């Protein structure tokens, strides 16, 4: 193959004035291809402008959604449909993302995630830090379903675990929540022997591989960057107080 191409390369070198010019031409072509691939990847990323708010019922997603948009407290109830709005970043009013608050009810959450997952630039998974100890298995189960989804794995949106309700004395810390979730997710990974099913109900063709084989699971093994923050959508003074969402807002600026 190489011998067959040599006469053509020699002729091209002669026409272009020597091997140096040909090398430059090859380098320029390589740069052009790299640039086109970069633009393609960036184009796919920029087309995903949604930040999904996920979590179990009563984790505080809807109040957090309202606080981010208006800064004000509002009474909320369990959502049965999605809510969306454009969120303009405080540091740069020209930059915005679309916040989408998805229902947390067990019978609805995967259905709505299926609808919006392809548009997700980032995911905020809201955890009730007060009820976490008794809900840890349910939280891990939902999070596991999100993390093994083929679309989520392929797009690898930034993931934030927002440990909400930190204004309450009995709230668990972000560090403890991370440790417990890693432990529960590792258990789920080991016990899931059947082929996993994607959100649309189709089999993925093999056992879920969450993290690295032969090692205990931790979040650093995932294809997306995972961060934990402590926050409070209600605030330490209840309805009259300001929410503590500074860490969440900084993260949104970073991923926008």
From TrEMBL:
<protein>
    <recommendedName>
        <fullName>Signal recognition particle receptor subunit beta</fullName>
    </recommendedName>
</protein>
<keyword id="KW-1133">Transmembrane helix</keyword>
<dbReference type="GO" id="GO:0005525">
    <property type="term" value="F:GTP binding"/>
</dbReference>
<keyword id="KW-0256">Endoplasmic reticulum</keyword>
<keyword id="KW-0472">Membrane</keyword>
<keyword id="KW-0812">Transmembrane</keyword>
<dbReference type="InterPro" id="IPR024156">
    <property type="entry name" value="Small_GTPase_ARF"/>
</dbReference>
<dbReference type="GO" id="GO:0005789">
    <property type="term" value="C:endoplasmic reticulum membrane"/>
</dbReference>
<keyword id="KW-0342">GTP-binding</keyword>
<keyword id="KW-0675">Receptor</keyword>
<dbReference type="InterPro" id="IPR027417">
    <property type="entry name" value="P-loop_NTPase"/>
</dbReference>
<dbReference type="Pfam" id="PF09439">
    <property type="entry name" value="SRPRB"/>
</dbReference>
<feature type="transmembrane region" description="Helical">
    <location>
        <begin position="20"/>
        <end position="38"/>
    </location>
</feature>
<dbReference type="InterPro" id="IPR019009">
    <property type="entry name" value="SRP_receptor_beta_su"/>
</dbReference>
<comment type="similarity">
    <text>Belongs to the SRP receptor beta subunit family.</text>
</comment>
<keyword id="KW-0547">Nucleotide-binding</keyword>
